[in-house]
From TrEMBL:
Residues 281-363 form the GHMP kinase C-terminal domain. Residues 95-182 form the GHMP kinase N-terminal domain. It holds the Pfam family GHMP_kinases_C. GO terms for cellular component: cytosol. This is Galactokinase. InterPro entries: Galactokinase, Galactokinase_CS, GalKase_N, GHMP_kinase_C_dom, GHMP_kinase_C_sf, GHMP_kinase_N_dom, GHMP_knse_ATP-bd_CS, Mevalonate/galactokinase. Its EC number is 2.7.1.6. Residues 10-59 form the Galactokinase N-terminal domain. The lineage of its organism: Bacteria, Pseudomonadati, Pseudomonadota, Gammaproteobacteria, Aeromonadales. It comes from the Bacteria.
Length: 386
């Protein structure tokens, strides 16, 4: 984080002609297992990663947020604080912040004042590692601390989720929840119905690798929302509020009342919830063989039932399986899908084996290179006065 902090500090001083008085940081995330279960009230097992969003800020004595986005070629925007804030017609990045701002203003009114802010992140955009959630949580936590609003971390996460809906993306709570509530050296199993958090220690005999296919996804669109609608349709046919409340027996009893696509979407979610609960135990126990079986089953379900993988992420999974052998290849596509990253949980001795295999084979298949990085499980949102 030190590099992006230094860049942020310099950009702030260059733009605003003064030094910031506060700093905020919120991480991105990688999801070990539990895909598209969050908006169905189910279980997920993400961890916060060592890549995230840094903001430095200073109150400006006005009713206006003035924001510099270093990563967007120093693009700049400002907007007045109010309980109704219009979306910017062309700048997607600031709409995440506008979407959080109007909610805070709705709740806290004139307690919220203007800030000068510079933003710099190092989560690869479009990689499925939650750069937008990191941005939303970073901003929400910054504003809460800047004005002593004491907004609970999960409430900040919910504001981030609502900001996505404001933009047009009906996502679940996982990404914002882990960015806010991450814990060093732990994954966090999130019950997305009760918002319960269970710490799951990362065992010392396992490493987390993220392999970016460099196929960028764009989830603000029909594919993601279509799948959510299919899940809601299935839940309605089964007669439950959320697919979290359904079993495979209940789904199969209603199979003749739904089309094949709706059935397969629901089957993915119901079986994925079961896999998350089993995988949490295997992960904490360092049981790589069981974890490998569950993560690969998750990937196949993503591919065949939910249809969110692409040939490039499928290829990475196959390369890792071939390099490590099926028993030890705990690997799957992670994130919302349609590109992005693959996550692999491996023994330390096999980190280089995986890297070498990907570097030797992926470009020949895809025509582009993959980016591979190791991560630790990190803490969530952190505020500091400078």
């Amino acid at each position: 984080m030190s590099d992006i902090r230094e860049i942020c500090l310099k950009a702030f001083e260059d733009k605003f002609g003064t030094k910031p008085t506060m700093q905020e940081y919120a991480p991105g995330r990688v999801n070990i297992i539990g895909e598209h279960t969050d908006y169905n009230g189910g279980f997920v097992l993400p961890c916060a990663i060592k890549y995230g969003t840094c903001m430095v800020a200073k109150p400006n004595g006005t009713n206006t947020m003035r924001i510099l986005a270093v990563d967007m070629n120093n693009d700049y925007d400002e907007f007045e604080l109010a309980s109704k804030i219009e979306k910017h017609p062309t700048k997607l990045w600031v709409n995440y912040l506008r979407g959080v701002s109007y909610q805070i203003c709705e709740k806290f009114g004139d307690k919220v004042k203007g800030l000068d802010i510079a933003i710099k992140g190092d989560v690869p955009p479009g990689a499925g590692l939650s750069s937008s959630a990191s941005l939303e949580v970073c901003f929400g936590h910054l504003v809460s601390n800047a004005f002593d609003l004491n907004i609970a971390l999960m409430d900040i996460a919910l504001m981030g989720q609502a900001a996505e809906a404001y933009i047009g993306m009906k996502c679940g709570i996982m990404d914002q929840a882990i960015s806010a509530n991450g814990t060093k050296n732990h994954a966090v199993r999130i019950d997305c119905k009760s918002y319960g958090l269970t710490q799951v220690a990362v065992p010392s005999n396992l490493e987390i690798l993220i392999i970016n296919s460099n196929i960028k996804h764009q989830l603000v669109g029909s594919e993601y929302n279509d799948r959510r609608e299919s899940c809601e349709k299935a839940a309605k046919i089964i007669g439950v509020p959320l697919l979290r409340d359904a079993t495979m027996e209940m789904l199969d009893a209603c199979k003749d009342k739904m089309d094949d696509e709706t059935y397969r979407r629901a089957r993915h979610v119901i079986t994925e919830d079961e896999r998350v609960l089993e995988a949490s135990k295997a992960f904490e126990a360092g049981d790589l063989k069981t974890l490998a079986k569950l993560m690969y089953a998750s990937h196949i379900s993503e591919k065949n039932d939910f249809e969110i993988t692409v040939k490039e992420t499928d290829a990475i999974v196959d390369i890792v399986k071939e390099a490590l052998g099926e028993e030890y290849a705990a690997v799957r596509q992670t994130g919302g899908g349609f590109g992005g990253c693959v996550v692999a949980v491996v023994e330390p001795k096999n980190v280089e084996v995986v890297k070498n295999a990907i570097n030797a084979k992926y470009q020949k298949i895809s025509g582009i290179g993959a980016t591979i990085f190791e991560t630790q499980a990190c803490d969530g949102a952190t505020f500091t006065r400078l």
